[in-house]
User: Which sequence fits this backbone?
């Protein structure tokens, strides 16, 4: 037994320099700035409670390695699709970070409560903003349409609240819920409200997200430009106003696999499109063909 203990101690002593080096290489979260600008609005962070709340989110971004790396890799593709829509709608580009914390930039994301897509619309909110949700079509997965719906929500909220952090809180907790809390607590900004933890953290996660994408190396992450996922490319867009009995056959007729067609059109949720109402849909045909 004595020999085993001696050997174990010797092994630990031999490994300790390596363990110490590994520990020292683990990145520390960046320091909380005294202030930052989000969507053109300056947020002062020299208050102790604000500093601690943002510090928590900076630490979280530093340590959620898988999601942080995947978000960086997806950002080139997803921001290329969303930022032009934000600009066309007259909204600040920084609102793209709201989408990032909602879905980790995963267009297939579905939450435990059923919120779906990049912008994580619930069925109820999707209906309010005229997104179709059915067994065959779910426009919460149509990046252009869901982004336009998100823009409509954000514009409505900004008209009501007048500052983007309160708008962000309302994206998480609902416009009605935030309006009620502001009235009850006699405040004009959600940053000053006592809220459930998820919503309270949400605003500071948004700030941390902007800092993360602006300087990922400060969080210990480095993704080279060539490692980022490139924008998707399409060879044509097919406009349909009637039914498609078989999307498998439709895909083959256009030189792609059913899998490639579905990947390019996540909003198509079945293997056919009944379209009894005669709606107009645009189906993207990806450049990726049959190998």
Assistant:
């Amino acid at each position: 037994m004595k020999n085993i203990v001696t050997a174990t101690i010797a092994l630990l002593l031999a490994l300790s320099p390596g363990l110490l080096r590994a520990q020292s290489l683990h990145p520390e979260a960046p320091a909380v700035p005294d202030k930052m600008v989000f969507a053109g609005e300056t947020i002062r962070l020299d208050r102790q409670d604000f500093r601690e709340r943002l510090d928590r989110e900076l630490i979280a971004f530093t340590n959620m390695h898988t999601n942080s790396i995947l978000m960086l890799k997806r950002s080139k593709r997803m921001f290329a699709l969303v930022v032009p829509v934000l600009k066309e709608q007259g909204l600040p580009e920084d609102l793209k970070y709201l989408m990032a914390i909602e879905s980790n930039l995963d267009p297939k994301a579905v939450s435990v409560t059923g919120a779906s897509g990049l912008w994580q619309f619930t069925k109820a909110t999707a209906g309010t903003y005229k997104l179709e949700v059915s067994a065959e079509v779910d426009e919460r997965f149509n990046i252009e349409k869901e982004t336009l719906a998100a823009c409509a929500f954000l514009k409505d909220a900004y008209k009501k609240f007048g500052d983007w952090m309160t708008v962000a809180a309302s994206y998480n907790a609902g416009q009605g819920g935030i309006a009620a809390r502001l009235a009850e607590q006699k405040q004009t900004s959600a940053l000053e409200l006592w809220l459930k933890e998820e919503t309270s953290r949400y605003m500071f996660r948004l700030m941390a997200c902007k800092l993360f994408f602006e300087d990922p190396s400060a969080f210990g992450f480095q993704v080279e430009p060539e490692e980022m996922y490139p924008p998707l490319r399409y060879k044509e867009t097919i406009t349909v106003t009637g039914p498609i009995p078989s999307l498998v056959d439709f895909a083959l007729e256009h030189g792609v696999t059913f899998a490639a067609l579905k990947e390019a059109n996540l909003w198509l949720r079945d293997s056919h499109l009944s379209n009894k109402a005669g709606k107009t849909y645009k189906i993207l045909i990806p450049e990726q063909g049959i190998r």
User: Anything to note?
Assistant: The first strand starts at residue 35 and ends at 38. The two ends are 63 Å apart (CA to CA). Confidence is low (pLDDT under 50) at residues 8-24.
